[in-house]
């Protein structure tokens, strides 16, 4: 048993930490207060290899392993959860399914541009009426000669505004639930796709969240991803990987809050001494640190299992569940330690607090994660 | 163009430094060590010359086995090869000893230009680059802030920032250059670069391989010895001036005049 990161993981960590410190951190507060898409930072991140991290170099990716991926995502989220959202969606939810389920032609057409920053991806699964119940989605795809005609509205799509490559799930057959669903690679340039309502959010503000409207969108048959009817499997497999990215995001947010709160507790004086000398504050810091470490270990274990090629659905859900609830709890305590200063925008902890909440919701709510974990436990006991 | 870049591994300037109880050196347990920042600029300069003229960038360092981490950083930035001189007999070597070892290694390698950082952030001596040029009998230009190599790669015009102006020098190649941080902006190692760096074998050589004798380059040859290392005095706490604004301003002005003596 070795709890050390390997040399290359430490190099990835050091590189991305330095990149985040120089390029992201100085702009993180401004990107939250006046949200604009940080295209310049995204281009620099792409030059480093952060947009297609685990995609092999033959397809333009960085050829890294899943442990490097989560280590890098934690560093990005430590600086700006909003910016990391843009990057993790492109990696986990767009590059990954194209690499695992795409044809050679699809991989060659899409992975190099998604990995290089020339394109940005988005993932269109959720619909206004189907969130946790995603496998009941209603977006419809009909075959006409060598095209598929897609109709429906996708909701809460991260990167929807800036993305030009969309993974879209639609119903291609009469079978109910997951079996009737297929996945498509849809370009924004195809006729009949548009961006609908752009949402205003509580946190992760520099990433766009919007509807994607498919109004008779014409998709070449060659852009069907995987077999017809395999969309449900593609969606769930993809989300296992996605949850690693969200776990890393939550760990990054929790660490940011812990580091800020620790520094504040050491420096802030009340009643003639630093508040870090009071046991009430010490207990909070101790619990914050313990939970953050536990979340990171769960994250690393899930990434390690993925690296080994074993099934890691349960462990990915555990990491995502525990890390997201930790991020919420730790940021809540960080605001408390900062007191009034935690509630104002001059300090970063209120941003962490707002950013943390989404990690309990997207890519499967905490309730869905518990269902995944419990079903996995009970499998084979039926 | 055969480009050699000399690098050193130093404590991270942001890491807290602890000094050994006996004052004999820095306690490096748990200390984060990085490539000297000036050497990142030297590596960047080497990589840019390779982009302009083709050829290879070879990194050279002297130190313990863990110095390979700093060499890997340079490989990840894009250097082609790295070589480490590591020998227990080098413990206690001074700057001139290290320069002699570097000179011995570089003599075994084809070199059109040798680039070093101006100084290393750990001991600020700014000695090794200049001494290296002497031992190699090469022309040198130190602390350069601008580098313009002629189209044929036969020499360079460099700018040095001197008190109140800029000194422009021409040096024929092969030459030793030491660089300022203002020369360029070092690139980040790319992630694929990190993977390539990890797979790359870093050759380690000893004094014996180089035909050097510890008596000539090791502690015995050191012309200066470290007497004691001590931490800087603790910073005094600031003073808070009480009272209303008018009183506070006059109190601060009299402090600046009479105590700090920065106003007259």
Automatic annotation (TrEMBL), chain A:
<feature type="domain" description="Acyl-CoA oxidase/dehydrogenase middle">
    <location>
        <begin position="122"/>
        <end position="217"/>
    </location>
</feature>
<dbReference type="Pfam" id="PF02771">
    <property type="entry name" value="Acyl-CoA_dh_N"/>
</dbReference>
<feature type="domain" description="Acyl-CoA dehydrogenase/oxidase C-terminal">
    <location>
        <begin position="229"/>
        <end position="378"/>
    </location>
</feature>
<dbReference type="InterPro" id="IPR036250">
    <property type="entry name" value="AcylCo_DH-like_C"/>
</dbReference>
<keyword id="KW-0274">FAD</keyword>
<dbReference type="Pfam" id="PF02770">
    <property type="entry name" value="Acyl-CoA_dh_M"/>
</dbReference>
<dbReference type="InterPro" id="IPR009075">
    <property type="entry name" value="AcylCo_DH/oxidase_C"/>
</dbReference>
<dbReference type="Pfam" id="PF00441">
    <property type="entry name" value="Acyl-CoA_dh_1"/>
</dbReference>
<dbReference type="GO" id="GO:0003995">
    <property type="term" value="F:acyl-CoA dehydrogenase activity"/>
</dbReference>
<dbReference type="InterPro" id="IPR006091">
    <property type="entry name" value="Acyl-CoA_Oxase/DH_mid-dom"/>
</dbReference>
<dbReference type="GO" id="GO:0050660">
    <property type="term" value="F:flavin adenine dinucleotide binding"/>
</dbReference>
<feature type="domain" description="Acyl-CoA dehydrogenase/oxidase N-terminal">
    <location>
        <begin position="7"/>
        <end position="117"/>
    </location>
</feature>
<dbReference type="InterPro" id="IPR009100">
    <property type="entry name" value="AcylCoA_DH/oxidase_NM_dom_sf"/>
</dbReference>
<keyword id="KW-0285">Flavoprotein</keyword>
<comment type="similarity">
    <text>Belongs to the acyl-CoA dehydrogenase family.</text>
</comment>
<dbReference type="InterPro" id="IPR013786">
    <property type="entry name" value="AcylCoA_DH/ox_N"/>
</dbReference>
<dbReference type="InterPro" id="IPR037069">
    <property type="entry name" value="AcylCoA_DH/ox_N_sf"/>
</dbReference>
<keyword id="KW-0560">Oxidoreductase</keyword>
<protein>
    <submittedName>
        <fullName>Acyl-CoA dehydrogenase</fullName>
    </submittedName>
</protein>
<dbReference type="InterPro" id="IPR006089">
    <property type="entry name" value="Acyl-CoA_DH_CS"/>
</dbReference>
<dbReference type="InterPro" id="IPR046373">
    <property type="entry name" value="Acyl-CoA_Oxase/DH_mid-dom_sf"/>
</dbReference>
From TrEMBL, chain B:
<dbReference type="InterPro" id="IPR033948">
    <property type="entry name" value="ETF_beta_N"/>
</dbReference>
<dbReference type="GO" id="GO:0009055">
    <property type="term" value="F:electron transfer activity"/>
</dbReference>
<comment type="function">
    <text>The electron transfer flavoprotein serves as a specific electron acceptor for other dehydrogenases. It transfers the electrons to the main respiratory chain via ETF-ubiquinone oxidoreductase (ETF dehydrogenase).</text>
</comment>
<feature type="domain" description="Electron transfer flavoprotein alpha/beta-subunit N-terminal">
    <location>
        <begin position="23"/>
        <end position="214"/>
    </location>
</feature>
<dbReference type="InterPro" id="IPR014730">
    <property type="entry name" value="ETF_a/b_N"/>
</dbReference>
<keyword id="KW-0249">Electron transport</keyword>
<dbReference type="InterPro" id="IPR000049">
    <property type="entry name" value="ET-Flavoprotein_bsu_CS"/>
</dbReference>
<comment type="similarity">
    <text>Belongs to the ETF beta-subunit/FixA family.</text>
</comment>
<protein>
    <recommendedName>
        <fullName>Electron transfer flavoprotein subunit beta</fullName>
    </recommendedName>
</protein>
<dbReference type="InterPro" id="IPR014729">
    <property type="entry name" value="Rossmann-like_a/b/a_fold"/>
</dbReference>
<dbReference type="Pfam" id="PF01012">
    <property type="entry name" value="ETF"/>
</dbReference>
<keyword id="KW-0813">Transport</keyword>
<dbReference type="InterPro" id="IPR012255">
    <property type="entry name" value="ETF_b"/>
</dbReference>
<comment type="subunit">
    <text>Heterodimer of an alpha and a beta subunit.</text>
</comment>
């Amino acid at each position: 048993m070795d709890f050390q990161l390997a040399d290359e993981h430490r190099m990835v960590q050091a590189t991305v930490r330095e990149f985040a410190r120089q390029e992201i951190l100085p702009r993180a507060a401004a990107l939250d207060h006046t949200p604009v898409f940080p295209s310049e930072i995204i281009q620099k991140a792409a030059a480093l290899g952060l947009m297609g991290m685990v995609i092999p170099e033959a397809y333009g990716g960085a050829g890294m392993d899943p442990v490097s991926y989560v280590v890098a995502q934690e560093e990005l989220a430590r600086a700006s959860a909003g910016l990391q959202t843009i990057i993790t969606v492109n990696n986990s939810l767009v590059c990954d399914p194209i690499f695992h389920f795409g044809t050679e032609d699809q991989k060659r057409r899409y992975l190099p541009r998604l990995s290089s920053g020339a394109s940005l991806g988005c993932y269109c699964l959720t619909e206004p009426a189907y969130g946790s119940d995603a496998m009941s989605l209603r977006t419809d795809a009909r075959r006409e000669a060598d095209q598929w005609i897609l109709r429906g509205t996708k909701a809460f799509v991260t990167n929807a505004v800036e993305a030009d490559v969309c993974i879209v799930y639609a119903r291609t057959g009469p079978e109910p639930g997951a079996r009737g669903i297929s996945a498509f690679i849809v370009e924004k340039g195809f006729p009949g796709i548009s961006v609908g309502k752009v949402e205003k959010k509580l946190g992760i503000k520099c990433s766009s969240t919007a509807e994607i409207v498919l109004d008779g969108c014409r998709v070449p048959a060659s852009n069907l991803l995987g077999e017809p009817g395999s969309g449900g499997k593609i969606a769930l497999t993809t989300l296992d990987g996605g949850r690693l990215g969200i776990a890393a995001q939550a760990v990054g947010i929790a660490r940011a809050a812990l580091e800020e709160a620790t520094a504040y507790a050491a420096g802030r004086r009340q009643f003639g001494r630093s508040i870090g000398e009071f046991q009430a504050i010490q207990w909070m810091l101790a619990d914050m640190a313990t939970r953050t470490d536990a979340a990171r270990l769960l994250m690393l274990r899930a990434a390690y299992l993925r690296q080994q090629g074993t099934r890691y659905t349960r462990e990915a859900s555990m990491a995502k569940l525990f890390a997201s609830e930790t991020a919420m709890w730790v940021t809540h305590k960080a605001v408390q330690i900062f007191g009034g200063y935690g509630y104002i925008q001059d300090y970063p902890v209120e941003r962490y607090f707002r950013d943390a909440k989404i990690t309990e919701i997207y890519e499967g709510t905490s309730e869905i994660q518990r269902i995944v974990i419990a079903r996995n436990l009970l499998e084979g006991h039926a | 163009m055969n480009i050699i870049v000399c690098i050193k591994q130093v404590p991270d300037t942001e890491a807290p430094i602890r000094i050994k109880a006996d004052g004999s050196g820095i306690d490096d347990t748990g200390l984060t060590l990085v490539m000297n920042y000036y050497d990142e600029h030297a590596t960047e300069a080497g990589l840019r010359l390779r982009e302009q003229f083709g050829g290879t960038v070879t990194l050279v360092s002297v130190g313990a086995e863990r110095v390979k981490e700093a060499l890997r950083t340079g490989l990840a930035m894009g250097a082609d090869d790295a070589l480490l001189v590591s020998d227990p007999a080098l413990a206690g070597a001074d700057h001139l000893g290290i320069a002699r070892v570097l000179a011995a290694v570089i003599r075994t390698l084809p070199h059109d230009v040798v680039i070093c950082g101006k100084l290393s952030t750990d001991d600020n001596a700014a000695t090794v680059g200049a001494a290296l040029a002497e031992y190699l009998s090469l022309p040198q230009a130190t602390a350069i802030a601008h580098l313009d190599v002629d189209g044929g790669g036969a020499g360079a015009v460099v700018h040095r920032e001197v008190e109140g102006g800029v000194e422009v020098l021409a040096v024929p190649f092969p030459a030793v250059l030491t660089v300022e941080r203002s020369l360029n902006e070092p690139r980040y190692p790319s992630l694929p670069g990190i993977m390539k760096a990890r797979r790359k074998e870093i050759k380690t050589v000893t004094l014996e391989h180089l035909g050097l004798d510890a008596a000539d380059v090791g502690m015995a040859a050191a012309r200066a010895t470290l007497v004691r290392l001590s931490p800087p005095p603790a910073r005094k706490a600031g003073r808070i001036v009480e009272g209303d604004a008018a009183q506070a301003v006059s109190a601060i002005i009299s402090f600046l005049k009479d105590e700090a003596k920065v106003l007259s």
